[in-house]
Amino acid sequence: MTSHPYNRQTPSVRRKAAVAVIVRQRRLLVIRRSQNVPAPGKLCFPGGGIQPNESEQEAVVREIAEEIGVSCFPQQKIWHSQTSWGTDVAWWAAEIAEDAQIEINLDEVAEYFWLRPAELHAHVDLLPSNHEFLSAWKAQTFTIADFSDPFARHADD
Ligand SMILES: Nc1nc2c([nH]c(=O)n2[C@@H]2O[C@H](COP(=O)(O)OP(=O)(O)OP(=O)(O)O)[C@@H](O)[C@H]2O)c(=O)[nH]1
């Protein structure tokens, strides 16, 4: 038996999740998970499980409202993966208003940051499945609009 935080899931039930990749000035909106949820203290994108009869976009909108208190606008599905613990994850590029006031829900989120992709990739607390996402982005498996060459040093960094 391993002690993986997601091992509480029944193997026969394939969970589905959707997350929001929100970019501002070449930085990604990242949350640190609270101590009350699985994988406490890990860094990841806002998002969560898709409920029955809910689309991926609807799940993104609901989870972002619940976790960081803002309206979000899913733009494009950029990637899809399956975690080592058997969850299907849909990765959505999404936007929030420039003047959106982020208010985290402390039950679920300990803090939030805007991080460059390279900073996130190197972060010791990054959720393992998000390493795979960043590696796939680096390998240009997918692209994100207005954010080409995400791992290159940039004059504004
Ligand atoms: N929120 C979030 N979940 C992610 C990311 N990457 C990733 O593999 N996941 C996986 O997606 C699944 C849903 O995450 P979650 O634990 O935030 O969802 P949730 O709050 O709805 O959990 P629950 O359905 O048990 O209440 C988990 O298996 C989680 O590990 C990410 O960047 N953000």
TrEMBL record:
Residue span, Nudix hydrolase domain: 13-140
**SUPFAM superfamilies the record matches:** Nudix
The residue ranges crossing the membrane are none
Cofactor section: Mg(2+)
Report the domain of life of the source organism: Bacteria
Catalysed transformations (reactions): 8-oxo-GTP + H2O = 8-oxo-GMP + diphosphate + H(+); 8-oxo-dGTP + H2O = 8-oxo-dGMP + diphosphate + H(+)
Alphabetized, the UniProt keywords read: DNA damage, DNA repair, DNA replication, Hydrolase, Magnesium, Metal-binding, Mutator protein
- Set out the biological process GO terms recorded for this chain's protein: DNA repair; DNA replication
User: InterPro entries attached here?
Assistant: MutT-like (IPR047127), NUDIX_hydrolase-like_dom_sf (IPR015797), NUDIX_hydrolase_CS (IPR020084), NUDIX_hydrolase_dom (IPR000086)
E.C. designation(s): 3.6.1.55
Q: Name one GO molecular function term.
A: metal ion binding
Name by which UniProt lists this protein:
8-oxo-dGTP diphosphatase
Species this chain originates from: Blastopirellula retiformator
